[in-house]
UniProtKB/TrEMBL annotation:
Lineage: Bacteria, Bacillati, Bacillota, Bacilli, Lactobacillales
Family membership: Belongs to the NnrE/AIBP family.
YjeF N-terminal domain mapped to chain residues: 11-211
Cofactor(s) for this UniProt protein: K(+)
Sorted UniProt keywords: Isomerase, Metal-binding, NAD, NADP, Nucleotide-binding, Potassium
Reactions catalysed, as given in the entry: (6R)-NADPHX = (6S)-NADPHX; (6R)-NADHX = (6S)-NADHX
The species this protein was found in: Periweissella ghanensis
Protein name: NAD(P)H-hydrate epimerase
Protein function: Catalyzes the epimerization of the S- and R-forms of NAD(P)HX, a damaged form of NAD(P)H that is a result of enzymatic or heat-dependent hydration. This is a prerequisite for the S-specific NAD(P)H-hydrate dehydratase to allow the repair of both epimers of NAD(P)HX.
Listed EC numbers: 5.1.99.6
HAMAP family: NADHX_epimerase (MF_01966)
InterPro entries for the chain: YjeF_N_dom, YjeF_N_dom_sf
Length: 211
């Protein structure tokens, strides 16, 4: 059977329906998203000696922080590079950040050499990206791509429009993309083919009533 393919707008509506109408707590979905990434990288033969999570300020960054905490608690050497305006953290991101701080997960804000890491997890932007990535964030994306290190993208490679597959300014080139709930149109069209790597769809408990 062909997988169901959705736009960013449809996915946002399904997230909202699952959280607000069904009553599934958003934190449960985020934890399942993070656990699905952990299971995929554990099975994928990646070198987990030194892992860098690049996290943005939205819920995609929240996924990244949850992944960082789970890896940290497994004794893996993990560091978070938190990028963007910290005054604009989403509610879930703030919660995940506070938990990470209590567990003393290493968190930094400045871009160093991405070649120091054996695996980079891209949690900068997900389906909420609406405009070109610019400035320090764009610089990070370009440096990550230039590092030639393995990259696992959380939900979608940051910089790809989840609906059109267009590159908004600059976009991560991933080896593997783990996308949640349903396949996004933007992972299958436009500039996606050179950016997404192997695409894996993971069920995290988001169900759209019409499917
Ligand atoms: N709703 C939920 O509870 C869940 C969300 N999930 C994750 O959340 C992601 C969506 O999260 P968000 O909607 O917070 O969005 P993102 O985390 O994709 O984007 C973050 C924020 O960045 C801002 N932004 C957009 N373009 C920008 C640009 N070029 N430069 C700077 N800032 C920019 C937007 O205003 C947005 O609020 C999904 O892709 C998925 O990874 C999953 O954890 C599953 C559950
Ligand atoms: K991402």
């Amino acid at each position: 059977m062909e997988p169901t393919v959705v736009t960013a707008q449809q996915m946002q509506a399904y997230d909202k329906y699952t959280i607000e109408t069904i009553g599934m707590p958003s934190a449960v979905l985020m934890e399942r998203a993070a656990l699905s990434v952990i299971a995929t990288i554990a099975a994928g033969g990646f070198d987990l000696s030194r892992v860098l999570i690049v996290a943005g300020t939205g819920n995609n960054g929240g996924d990244g922080l949850a992944i960082a905490r789970l890896l940290h608690l497994k004794g893996i050497d993990v560091k978070v590079l938190l990028l963007g305006d910290e005054r604009k953290l989403s509610k879930a991101n703030k919660e995940q950040l506070a938990i990470c701080r209590k567990y003393q997960v290493k968190i930094g804000h400045s871009i160093k050499d991405f070649r120091d890491y054996t695996l980079i997890i891209d949690a900068l932007f997900g389906i909420g990206l609406t405009r070109d990535i610019t400035g320090k964030l764009s610089e990070a994306v370009k440096k990550i791509n230039a590092s030639n290190q393995p990259v696992v993208a959380v939900d979608i490679p940051s910089g790809l429009d989840a609906t059109t597959g267009k590159i908004l300014g600059s976009a991560i080139r991933a080896n593997t993309t783990i996308t949640f709930g349903y396949l996004k149109v933007g992972l299958t069209v436009g500039d996606a083919s050179k950016r997404v790597g192997k695409v894996i769809v993971k069920d995290i408990g988001i169900y759209a009533p019409e499917f």
